[in-house]
């Protein structure tokens, strides 16, 4: 298709979808972009020597994110692979809920079993077209999130009372609660947002859902044997799902979020029984939200010991570690870049 025809068709579509005034803006941008070839637009990059700046422009990521990736990966080829992966929209991943459905049933419906999670399956169609999903016998959840829930529950072992401290919108709570029910355990969910708590209630059955600030969980007077804190974070591990986040988040957000993460961790540990398991999870690989927080938790809480995540990693996933922690990467593992650290309260 000729360039002018592509511009005209796109502007006409914009006019129908977003209105005349915004379509005029789209038209102006497209005409300016189409005035040069791709090679002409990219040629100035050849003069840029700083790889962070170059990759930032080439793959449309803020420089602070590119730098954060390099600090962890120490290889610009690996950094670029992650940036490329972030720009490819994720296809739906289904999750079977124990006691309601199985991975095999999802595969029979045309999905493809996930590489690592025993509950997941990738599906190219609309999840809402499946009866299992419509009737809440299965759900939609990234494989990385499934792995966090599954590994946490393996470490939880004989725990009787299990808490998901930051449960909304309910993906991990759904899988953990179904595993808990199948194992005869008690499950509790906590969520500060009432609308998100309502979503959690729809997927955890009869288990209680507390609506409140996780930092005030001690006011419930309940103690727990295993607690997962999937804390609010920058979301840098899910940029392929929410690409706009890369431009909305700033280093100032990072500082505020790390403080909140510490406060939630402290609150969780305060209501954890001796011998209990604490899981700290984020959907971000950023050092300040992951390894630095682990160091701080251990410094502030000598009553904890960190456990090695590899003892419960699926076969083929042993490269998904950073120190003793789980550290998934989108480009390498085809999941969101989830992080999980596991601790035991020894006194």
Automatic annotation (TrEMBL):
PROSITE patterns per UniProt: NOL1_NOP2_SUN, SAM_MT_RSMB_NOP
Gene3D superfamilies the UniProt entry points to: NusB-like (1.10.940.10), Vaccinia Virus protein VP39 (3.40.50.150)
Coiled-coil annotated spans: none
UniProt keyword annotation of S-adenosyl-L-methionine present: yes
UniProt keyword Methyltransferase, yes or no: yes
GO biological processes: RNA methylation
All residue ranges annotated as the SAM-dependent MTase RsmB/NOP-type domain in the record: 71-346
Family as reported in the entry's similarity comment: Belongs to the class I-like SAM-binding methyltransferase superfamily. RsmB/NOP family.
Name under which the protein is recorded: Unannotated protein
Organism, scientific name: freshwater metagenome
């Amino acid at each position: 298709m000729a360039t002018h025809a592509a511009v005209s068709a796109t502007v006409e579509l914009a006019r129908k979808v977003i209105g005349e005034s915004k379509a005029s803006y789209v038209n102006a941008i497209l005409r300016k972009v189409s005035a040069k070839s791709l090679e002409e637009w990219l040629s100035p990059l050849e003069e840029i020597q700083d790889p962070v700046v170059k990759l930032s422009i080439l793959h449309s990521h803020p420089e602070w994110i590119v730098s954060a990736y390099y600090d962890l990966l120490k290889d610009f080829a690996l950094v670029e692979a992650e940036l490329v992966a972030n720009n490819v929209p994720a296809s739906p991943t289904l999750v079977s809920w124990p006691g309601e459905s199985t991975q095999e049933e999802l595969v029979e419906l045309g999905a493809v079993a996930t590489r690592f999670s025993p509950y997941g399956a990738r599906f190219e169609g609309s999840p809402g077209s499946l009866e299992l999903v419509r009737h809440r016998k299965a759900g939609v959840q990234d494989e990385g999130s499934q792995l966090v829930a599954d590994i946490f529950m393996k470490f939880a072992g004989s725990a009787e009372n299990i808490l998901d401290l930051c449960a909304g919108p309910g993906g991990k709570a759904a899988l953990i609660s179904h595993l808990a029910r199948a194992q005869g355990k008690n499950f509790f969910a906590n969520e500060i947002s009432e609308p998100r708590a309502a979503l959690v209630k729809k997927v955890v059955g009869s288990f209680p859902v507390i609506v409140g600030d996780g930092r005030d969980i001690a006011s419930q007077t309940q103690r727990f044997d295993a607690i997962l804190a999937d804390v609010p974070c920058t979301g840098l591990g899910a940029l392929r799902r929410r690409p706009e986040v890369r431009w909305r988040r700033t280093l100032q957000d990072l500082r505020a979020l790390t403080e909140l993460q510490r406060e939630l961790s402290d609150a969780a540990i305060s209501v954890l029984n001796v011998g209990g398991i604490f899981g700290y999870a984020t959907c971000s690989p950023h050092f300040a939200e992951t390894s630095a927080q682990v160091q701080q938790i251990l410094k502030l809480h000598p009553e904890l010991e960190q456990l090695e995540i590899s003892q419960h990693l699926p076969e083929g996933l042993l490269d998904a570690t950073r120190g003793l922690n789980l550290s998934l990467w989108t480009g390498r593992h085809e999941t969101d870049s989830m992080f999980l650290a596991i601790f035991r309260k020894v006194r």
